[in-house]
């Protein structure tokens, strides 16, 4: 995988209460990823960007919701989420501000 694709795969960390609980309990981190990203690409991208070893990757698509507005209906975009489990002893610090 080329360097450009590594940065395109991971869009952002997904910050929520459930994601924080997973990180604490089972060493899993949640990321928003590109809709066309594969599990293998997510694994390589996380390993190279954060210098950690990935044990497993689970992905799912979050369907965009229909919203009503004064013009009728509009749809929020569909996006993809990846649950990344790291090997024991590995950790990602998502709170680092640069």
From TrEMBL:
<protein>
    <recommendedName>
        <fullName>Large ribosomal subunit protein uL23</fullName>
    </recommendedName>
</protein>
<dbReference type="Pfam" id="PF00276">
    <property type="entry name" value="Ribosomal_L23"/>
</dbReference>
<dbReference type="GO" id="GO:0006412">
    <property type="term" value="P:translation"/>
</dbReference>
<dbReference type="GO" id="GO:0019843">
    <property type="term" value="F:rRNA binding"/>
</dbReference>
<comment type="subunit">
    <text>Part of the 50S ribosomal subunit. Contacts protein L29, and trigger factor when it is bound to the ribosome.</text>
</comment>
<dbReference type="GO" id="GO:0003735">
    <property type="term" value="F:structural constituent of ribosome"/>
</dbReference>
<keyword id="KW-0689">Ribosomal protein</keyword>
<keyword id="KW-0699">rRNA-binding</keyword>
<keyword id="KW-0694">RNA-binding</keyword>
<dbReference type="InterPro" id="IPR013025">
    <property type="entry name" value="Ribosomal_uL23-like"/>
</dbReference>
<dbReference type="GO" id="GO:0005840">
    <property type="term" value="C:ribosome"/>
</dbReference>
<dbReference type="InterPro" id="IPR012678">
    <property type="entry name" value="Ribosomal_uL23/eL15/eS24_sf"/>
</dbReference>
<keyword id="KW-0687">Ribonucleoprotein</keyword>
<dbReference type="GO" id="GO:1990904">
    <property type="term" value="C:ribonucleoprotein complex"/>
</dbReference>
<comment type="similarity">
    <text>Belongs to the universal ribosomal protein uL23 family.</text>
</comment>
<dbReference type="InterPro" id="IPR012677">
    <property type="entry name" value="Nucleotide-bd_a/b_plait_sf"/>
</dbReference>
<comment type="function">
    <text>One of the early assembly proteins it binds 23S rRNA. One of the proteins that surrounds the polypeptide exit tunnel on the outside of the ribosome. Forms the main docking site for trigger factor binding to the ribosome.</text>
</comment>
């Amino acid at each position: 995988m080329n360097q450009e694709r590594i940065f395109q795969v991971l869009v952002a960390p997904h910050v929520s209460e459930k994601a924080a609980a997973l990180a604490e309990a089972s060493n899993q981190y949640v990321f928003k990823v590109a809709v066309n990203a594969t599990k293998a690409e997510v694994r390589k991208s996380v390993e190279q960007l954060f210098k950690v070893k990935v044990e497993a990757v689970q992905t799912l698509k979050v369907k965009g919701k229909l919203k009503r507005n004064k013009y009728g209906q509009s749809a929020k975009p569909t996006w993809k989420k990846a649950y990344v489990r790291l090997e024991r002893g590995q950790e990602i610090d998502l709170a680092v501000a640069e």
